[in-house]
Amino acid sequence: MSQLQTLARRFPPGFLFGTATASYQIEGGHDVDGKGPSIWDTFCLRPGAISTGETGEIACDHYHRWREDVALMRELGLGAYRCSISWPRVLPSGTGARNEKGLEFYDRLVDELLGNGVRPFVTLYHWDLPQALQEKGGWAEPGVVDAFGAYADLVARRLGDRVSDWMTLNEPEVVAYAGHHVGVHAPGIRDFHAAVLVSHHLLLAHRAGAEAIRAARPAARVGIALNLSPCEPATDSPEDLAAATRADGYLNRWFLDPLHGRGYPKDMVALYAPYFDRARELDGYQGRLDFLGVNYYTRRVTKAGDGPLQLERVEREGAERTAIGWEVHPASFRKILTRVHRDYAPREMFVTENGAAYDDIVDDDRVDDPARVSFLSRHFLAAAEAIGDGVPLRGYFVWTLMDNFEWAHGTSKRFGIIHTDYRTQRRRIKSSGHWYRELIAAHRGAHVSAAAT
Ligand code: FCB
Question: Which end of the chain is more exposed for a tag (fewer CB within 10 A), N or C?
């Protein structure tokens, strides 16, 4: 039996193999058919915001090429596809009048997915807030919570007869801090106070959105996608150990605790006291996630330092890294999955993103990406080990279907298992895509023959 077949057999029958994307990163069509601008449309125009000077105005032109893209998913044999809805495409001003043409786009996409045997997992917010809401204060203003609830209601009513799996938000930590503290993401604000408030409004919005989806569609399954990582101390000094605990509180527990009925973690509420006094608003909230989505790329190593969190990130010398500079550390993937299961026991878990940027070798019809094949093999193995540890992992979405607009890096970082030629919009399946197709086929084959014997 080949290594790939052995790996495939470690995933239980019914395990979902998918890929993930996000609306702003692939759709393009930024101003067509009544779509309103998002904060990313605005942010990309700010000089210096995107390292390549690009925008996502065209991206992969998926808005026009969705049929071809779904055909590629079928070719890979994907069982599921995680995509996001562009809020300003369906509600150009964020609230109020809906854009029928935008809703029809997602109708067609969902129908095409289902017609090709691909189960849609829909994220409501993957970072493209309507600019009109930003002008009222965006995520830092409490009115955004009800606006998100109304948006969730609209989309769940419209698509919920065909979509059963929902994620309210993608990576609230990144929305809050990359967008409002470090300022490298839209809306490009640098204010820690605002960032903590935004993280709170995001959690309130998750609650409002989940309630709206369940009210509209009682059978819906509602989750969220969090970016989680083990946080390791740089040394075993008490100062660095304490810094790692703060990093874990900031990145993991601040979101996991209130989503699992525990309210905000007390140590972090104390640390944030100069910035934030609304922690009690989530007291008593039970969370009740149907599933937890984990996005994992790398681990975090920290030492004691400055700033509101009094810590500094440490990059280990000589570590294996991807083309975006992130350390490759599959053991941490198993570790975070088993830790979340042990400490929080979510009913079901999905890997909602995992993947890697590499500079691929393009040669006419072939796009070779052995480094990505190696990355994915090792991370799928780590996930299989986590399943062996008892983690209720039900599916795995590779980031990402095709090379796309990687936020502040523009198109310079390629994460796809399909290559995108941005000049011609030609798509070519990379060797990692072929590897994935074989893994999926081997999994299917193993369970079909097991069922027959
Ligand atoms: C995650 C984002 C996703 C993509 C990957 C590389 O943080 O959710 O959109 O940019 O990183």
Answer: C
Residue 444 pLDDT? 97
> What pLDDT is stored for residue 364 in this prediction?
84
3-state class (DSSP) for residue 15: coil
What residues are in contact with ligand 1 under a 6 Å CB criterion? Answer: 22, 25, 170-171, 174, 227, 295, 353, 399, 406-407, 415
User: Could you give the CA distance from residue 432 to residue 443 in angstroms, rounded to a whole number?
Assistant: 16
- Where the chain has pLDDT below 70, the residues are 453
Pairwise CA distance, residues 116 & 250, whole Å: 41
pLDDT, residue 301, reads: 98
Expressed in percent and rounded to 5, the helix, strand and coil fractions of the chain are 45, 15, 40
| pLDDT of res. 453 | 64
Contact 79, 16 (CB under 8 A): yes
Q: What is the Cα 121 distance to its own chain's centre? A: 11
Report pTM: 0.98
Task: From 123, 173, 407, 409, give the residue whose CB has the most ligand 1 atoms within 8 Å, as the site to mutate.
Answer: 407
Residues catalogued as catalytic: 171, 353
In ligand 1, which atom is closest to the CA atom of 170?
8
Cα 428 to ligand 1 centroid, rounded to whole Å: 21
Nearest ligand 1 atom to the CA of 324 is 6
As given in the structure block, the two tokens for residue 24 are 């702003």
Candidate of 185, 352, 353, 412 to mutate for ligand 1, largest count of ligand atoms within 8 Å of Cβ: 353
